[in-house]
Amino acid sequence: MIEYVRKTMKEIVMFIDKVIEKLNEEQVSLMLDVLENAYRQGSKILVMGAGRSGLVGRAFAMRLMHLGFNVYVLGETITPSIGERDVVVAISGSGRTQLIVTAAEAAKKVKATIIAITSYPDSPLGRLADIVVEIPGRTKLAPDIDYFARQILGIHEPLAPLGTLFEDTALVFLDGVVVELMHRLGKSEVDLRARHANIEL
Amino acid sequence: MIEYVRKTMKEIVMFIDKVIEKLNEEQVSLMLDVLENAYRQGSKILVMGAGRSGLVGRAFAMRLMHLGFNVYVLGETITPSIGERDVVVAISGSGRTQLIVTAAEAAKKVKATIIAITSYPDSPLGRLADIVVEIPGRTKLAPDIDYFARQILGIHEPLAPLGTLFEDTALVFLDGVVVELMHRLGKSEVDLRARHANIEL
Amino acid sequence: MIEYVRKTMKEIVMFIDKVIEKLNEEQVSLMLDVLENAYRQGSKILVMGAGRSGLVGRAFAMRLMHLGFNVYVLGETITPSIGERDVVVAISGSGRTQLIVTAAEAAKKVKATIIAITSYPDSPLGRLADIVVEIPGRTKLAPDIDYFARQILGIHEPLAPLGTLFEDTALVFLDGVVVELMHRLGKSEVDLRARHANIEL
Amino acid sequence: MIEYVRKTMKEIVMFIDKVIEKLNEEQVSLMLDVLENAYRQGSKILVMGAGRSGLVGRAFAMRLMHLGFNVYVLGETITPSIGERDVVVAISGSGRTQLIVTAAEAAKKVKATIIAITSYPDSPLGRLADIVVEIPGRTKLAPDIDYFARQILGIHEPLAPLGTLFEDTALVFLDGVVVELMHRLGKSEVDLRARHANIEL
């Protein structure tokens, strides 16, 4: 019996599929412009997120490195100081994860440009960000799901627990951003492979 | 212009959608039985993967922790020794990532049960595993995509670079495994939330 | 020419040597009692620190795992929720590292017992901790060195930059704590080796 | 009673103190020349070590970043490919840690220059390295301690368990290397502080 494996995968796939149509083109364009600009100017990108959102952020950061960005991850060894020319990408479904909000406030103080990936533009993280990209989901902190997510799922309670829908959608969205950046920056898969770690764990 | 964001997301979603039908029920059932058994016996689960596959593994490990498993991640601080009662979940699209194969061989020597999540059952990792769960994808090491993936994508070259299709599909698949385990172990979302880190980064 | 290698090593060694005499026996005894008690009750220990202090914390956490503690590190994958029976070990030379103070405040809210390892008992971290263990050093945030450190070094500016003296002293101190715990808990090196990761990176 | 805390700290301090005299000047000079050269040519440095040796490596890598090196850590998110112009610093007391030997072999294949920090020049890691810096210690894999360490400790069994003496000595040694590099590269503490993460965990 692997019924729930298939049903859950189907739910996640249908959720992401509907999000594709509902993406806010202006928000995503702004994000892409800031990232493209950071690449061309050699600015630093600092990616941050807690828990599984942090892992999604790392998966994105790894691809930005493959693309040739000066990208770093909050909490890793070689992350340097950032300043006003630099960009923070902060990922939090609820927009309320305490340490991410605190870190984003610190980034705000040094005048970095903050891009928030969140389901809640009106959250603490959303309000302090320069650019918000709304990715619907269900927060893990509140029992309810946001309005947008409910529209997508209909009346049913989702099978996927906690922040799963947000996290998986954010990963697929950010993988879409990577391909858009490849085209904007004229990078091919061969370029990415050349920078991909040849000794890795 | 965010055309490639949408197109890539659509490609990933369609890919995962087709994988749902093609999942090998026997392989997945075996994996679930081993995991359920490990939970009931209090055995350790050691999750390993390199690069983005390692991040997918961590996202899965975090949910296993929420479910109450004794789960650890290769390379993190508090990972203990494992032995013959324990289970390794090794994730590698190509099944050839050097350090993962070496680590899986070491696990084999101490007689742990090895579950491989890979696109290539006939790879070094696939061959040494006790259970192989095939997740199609495109390897990052070879320019070609595997036969199964080609069937799914048709004749088109995928937009998503390197291991993206494998990694995103593996994440969604493992999130399906989590929901199946919730049902088998009688766990609700409330149980998961109770173990979810309340101080997190 | 490796003159500065030797001189710096000598400086660090002399610094730690003087700290041994100046350790506050009451503070250290309290810390040991709390840790011993946590072990016997099966409470969780959550270790946290930023930058190199965080690495010192991880080195300590790894030994606590070898000793059989339920120990976790802030920011790693499988770190669960903590509560009032649990213990936080927070390491910060200055006692002002923003994210560590924020995390310790969150731990305070859930009523965990907080042990601070810091040069500044009167810092934000020191003030909110239940137990403070003073380890002298030189903070990386202020150009001056604390009074205690100055007494040890005399009038000379230290060679070792930023938080080096604090971090190295904290590591050696915590390794002393490990041996004290081995004796209190009746653990031999053989016991530690049995839990030491057999597949590690 | 904190008797063992003090005794162990004293043992570690005396051990490191004797190592200072016994440092092999030629080995250390070679290491410094390779690192200085890598800095001036903008080559990459890849630091690797398992367990507590890996944490010592990270503490060193963080300082190299503060100094302006292109430095990376095996297993972290943004670690790129390396090639023949690049340098690997591999840390392993026993010189036999499986995954580190495998990773060093992979680095050898791409013709990177390999610096091994180990107690055993004649170990698998020592033999494949281009430069070996001997740091005495006691391995965690064998019950005995190496000849050099025994000379230092005399006939007594050390209090500090497993690899502690090697790891703590390696940290202090590498902090000495950092100060030597500061002088060679004309860097002041102000330069280091400027690159030190301003948002950190």
Automatic annotation (TrEMBL), chains A, B, C, D:
Record domain SIS: where: 35-187
Keyword Nucleus: no
Protein name per Swiss-Prot or TrEMBL: Sugar phosphate isomerase
Molecular function GO terms recorded: carbohydrate derivative binding; isomerase activity
Record carries keyword Isomerase: yes
Protein family according to the UniProt entry: Belongs to the SIS family. PHI subfamily.
Key words, A-Z: Isomerase
One GO term of the biological process aspect: carbohydrate derivative metabolic process
TM ranges: none
